[in-house]
Amino acid sequence: MVDTMARLRAFLRRTTRLRGTSPRPAAGPSAGPAAGVPAGDEVLLDVPDDRLAPALVAAAHGAHGPASALLAGTRAQERWEHRDRYAARLAAFARSRPEWLRAWHAAAPEDPDGRLVTVRLAVDRCWESPDRVELLRQIAPMVTEAAENSGRDPVPWRVALDSARGRHAGHAEFERLWAEAVRRCPHHYGCHVAALEYLAAASPGAHRECLDFAETAARDAPEGSALRALPLRAAFRCLTEGGAGAVARARLDTAADLALALSAAQPAADPWPAELRNLLVYVLVRLERWPDALEQLRLAGPYATSFPWDREADDPLGRFLQVRDGVHAAVAGKVPAGVCAGRGSHAGPGAH
To answer: What is the mean pLDDT of residues 86-105?
Structure first.
């Protein structure tokens, strides 16, 4: 297995600092439902799975017990991908409804699960501020302490990686955090996404190098690992930041094919793989692989996700429906209008 620390260090040594911008055209209105998939009024945005949903309902009523039990279970079972996503979703909910999280922290300030959500929320809030860099520097000791006291859990280190990127930490510090993260879980998707975003921010325009990093990580990952979708994430960056010309088309197709295989192994019309399938649709549309895109829409069923559609429209659900209609038109032999437009990728701290 290729050493992940050496992989990151090698990337940082050979990337160049390029600068560029991406156009941001506005998305048009949806043309109507596509055949073979749910009608537009049946499509739901960011639906939680059947484990997370009860925790969110309880939190809405001020109770933190179900959220505590959910995250404690992911920690005990070492289901780190679920833990990462659930913590991010709970933190997002707490942005507008923080009472339950405050009560949780007051009742059990040393609870590693409550502390994870609290730290994730703090980092997310800093990202929303124009003073993000300074604010993230101020909370850096809290973020680091939570990670250092997390035992085998890699997720607080993923939060620390996001925080380091937001405050423009140097390569040496990021390497240290990365080493701690992959020592706990060498194939954690969220930590690799954080590293990919850091590398892309450190060297804008280094699309081939980012794809190198993602492809190597995917090759090292076991069959069925979410990390097999990391090249798709790198391809997404290439396609939305003007890097498609710098990367061979075959590499973008291979990234999509890896993710297609991962999607095929997941249940249809299920909230858990919905983000993977939404991202796949986005990339397949940009590659004009219309039948494959339509199949992913069928597998996604009624589940749309904010990412990636919120990267190019203020109404992600409306944009999803517009693209869906365009895919159906393309498969039917018509020219889809406004489907391939994009306005760039600017992922926030917890974006998967």
So the answer is: 97
CB of 340 within 8 A of CB of 286?
Answer: yes
How far, in Å, CA of 235 to CA of 211, rounded? 7
**Residues 42 and 302: beta-carbon distance below 8 Å:** yes
Q: Is the peptide bond before 308 cis (omega within 30 degrees of 0)?
A: yes
* pLDDT digit string, tens, across residues 138-180: 999 999 999 999 999 999 999 999 999 999 999 999 999 999 9
Helix axes 274-286, 316-331, angle to 10 degrees: 50
Kindly state whether residue 200 falls inside one of the protein's structural domains: no
Chosen domain end from 170, 185, 200: 185
Q: State the pLDDT confidence band at 297, using cuts at 50, 70 and 90.
A: very high
| Residues β-bridged to residue 45 | 304
The residues near 209 (Cβ < 8 Å, ≥ 6 apart) are 11, 14, 15, 199, 203
The Cα-based distances of 245 to 26, 214, 252, 333 in angstroms read 23, 18, 11, 26
The CB density around residue 133, as the number of other CB atoms within 10 Å, is 13
Q: Is the pLDDT of residue 26 over 50?
A: no
Number of domains in the chain: 2
- 263 in a structural domain: yes
Predicted confidence at residue 342, as pLDDT, reads 56
Residues 10 and 140 in one domain: no
Q: CA-CA distances (angstroms) from residue 38 to 32, 233, 260, 287?
A: 11, 26, 21, 24
Residue 67, domain member (yes or no): yes
Structural domain of residue 326, as residue ranges?
1-17+24-36+209-352
Whether residue 44 is contained in a domain is answered as no
Distance between CA 79 and CA 81 in Å, rounded? Answer: 6
